[in-house]
Amino acid sequence: MSLDMDDARSRISSSGSNSNDSKGKHLDVAESKEKRTGTQLDGDSARKTAKTRDEDGLPQGNVAVRMNQDYLDPKFVDSFYKAFTCKAVASEKDDQPETVSIPTENGEGIVVVSPFHTGRLYNILPKDFLHGLREELGALNWHERLNDLYWFYQTDDLALNGNTHIKALRDYLAGEEFVSFMERITGVGLTRGYLDLAAQRYKKGNHLLCHDDDVQRGKLTRKIAYIIYLVDEDWTTADGGSLGLFESDSDMYPTRVVARIVPRFNSIGFFLTGHASYHTVEEVTVSSQDRERWSVTGWFYGPATPESTEPKDTDSGVLSLQDSVLPRMLEFADSDGTVSELHNEDYAELKKWINADYAGAKVVDRIQEAFLNESSVELRDFLRPDIFGRCVAEMNHGFWSDAALLGPAHVSKYLRANVNSGNAATLCELLAFLRSPVFARFLSGMTSLRFSSMSQEVRQFKHGHYTLVHDQVVEPFGVDVTLSLMPRPEEKAPDVQWDESWGGSTHYIADKDELLRISPESNSLSLVLRDEGTLRFVKYVNHMAKAVRQDIAMVFVESPEEECEDGDAKD
Asked: Where are the alpha helices (DSSP H) in 187-261?
């Protein structure tokens, strides 16, 4: 909703855009891959799809495929198993993980020992077969997958697909030769007949952020994740899309990527899933839109064990994770213990900081009307130009050099500034004003709500930064108040105007519906009522962004319901 006011130079409009094209929400790993939980490939379903077999025992009309026979040599199997199951040894170079190479006549096996055991086999299948497989995959229906955690394109489950190359790959991966091979080189027992199989295409800007694939299905759990790369044969590190492996801290939370598996045609990568198998598909950064990262991925399953089903130690888990991520709550109060209505003298104080067009009783009433109708409102040109200009200037010249990088990576990644009067005097005073009872009363007037506490942080999002919805980090419900301090675009640099294709927008979701999307805009204040059941995240900022997002982010929490005079709570 927009409000046309003759007495206001500034524009007031409802925030963002309403949308029914749901992208889903990411709450846990079980949802991170559209709940693909293993298709049983034996039994009645397999018999129903069986065809008459030829003299080699293959279904007629199908193609035969087997892995590179070098890898079935007992010497290779033994050497790979020893490397894959050995304990990690500290490397002489901190940034260089320990790797073991096991060459063969027609291939090579690689084991990355840390941060967790990861294997790779080159020249795994016949090239002609993989070219035929990619051609069949290209003819299928592809679905865009987009939420807080990921953005890529994916086929339907390939478990019952009847195309010759797809079926041949599925049957071989689920067959005894390959399953027992995976058991022998990893030392992990697998359940026959259960396999996840789907294909993905990552286009320019696509990504899959930090997660661990640790998912249980009844008495079974994911044991081994695998990726068969179908990229162009000249794919390089510069094209992006590497599998990034995170090291974990003492609480088993991911910190940073310390090893990478660069996609390479006709190779398979695999690793054991578990509480600490945090990984990411890094953003695809190809120069041409026609160049894409193709792969076939899935999981092998095995019996759930006490170790795989036992939750992480939460003595220092949920609370410490939440406390380390969310800014602390700050209390403010008038004499009656809650924030009251605006006082007449408050308007003079407001005009020291904000656009005078907003500091009037009639305008506040109109803002409140818009907020009550839409549950959100955006006030553009909010700060006085001189205040805004000084704050933006202070946020340059090394302001962010000592900022904290907020994590862990499966929850968020952005900078939180440490603001003091020595490095940003005006900004420091502005933050105090936004924490004051005067501003709280102003906010109460615009929303008709009363507040008892609030949180506040100064943030910067640049390439690679994001926040994720996570079931162990739940923000307090209230009114989200976000003041954008992005520099204004100049005539000589119009690209500073934020483009939604860069990511960095704030998305509000409930269940599977996207309710609201707000893109950063210079000197705007957004107000959004976020009640129980509504979650938010800042979308990953991709490599195409030509500016950084910086803001003051606050959450104002409503006062608890007052008790009736007789002591009974209000209905």
From this structure: none
Alpha-carbon span 557 to 270, nearest angstrom: 46
Q: What is the pLDDT of residues 82-140, one digit of tens each?
A: 999 987 654 445 555 689 999 999 999 999 998 998 999 999 999 999 999 999 999 99
Residue 233 pairs in a beta bridge with none
Residues written for the chain? 571
pLDDT 10s digits, 333-378: 554 545 567 888 899 999 999 999 999 999 999 999 999 999 999 9
Question: Residue 55 and residue 72: Cα distance in Å, rounded?
Answer: 24
Cα 365–Cα 366–Cα 369 angle in degrees, nearest 5: 90
Q: In this predicted structure, which of 271-275, 323-327, 396-400, 408-412 has the lowest mean pLDDT?
A: 323-327
Listed as own residue / partner, the contacts of 508-512 with beta carbons closer than 8 Å and 24 or more positions apart are 508/534, 508/535, 508/536, 509/22, 509/23, 509/24, 509/25, 509/469, 509/534, 509/535, 509/536, 509/537, 510/534, 510/535, 511/25, 512/22, 512/24, 512/25
> Per-residue pLDDT tens for 303-319?
987 665 555 544 444 44
CA–CA distance, 150 with 366 (Å, rounded to integer): 39
Residue 451 φ then ψ, to 5°: -125, 150
Nearest to 518 by CA among 121, 15, 1, 9: 15
Cβ(246)–Cβ(256) under 8 Å? yes
> Taking 90 as the threshold, does the pLDDT of residue 299 lie above it?
yes
In 3D space, the residue among 551, 550, 547, 548 whose CA is nearest the CA of residue 494 turns out to be 547
SS3 for 355?
coil
The amino acid sitting at 14 is S
3-class SS of residue 146? strand
Taking 90 as the threshold, does the pLDDT of residue 145 lie above it?
yes
Cβ density class 321-348: b for 16+ within 10 Å, e for less: beeebbbeeeebeeeeebbeebeeebbe
- Six-digit token pair at 365? 């009433």
Nearest to 331 by CA among 563, 561, 557: 557
Q: What is the pTM of this model?
A: 0.86
H helices present in 13-156, as ranges: 44-49, 74-85, 127-138
**With 50 as the cut, is the pLDDT of residue 78 above it?**
yes
SS3 state of residue 69? helix
Beta bridge partners of residue 526, listed in sequence order = 378, 482
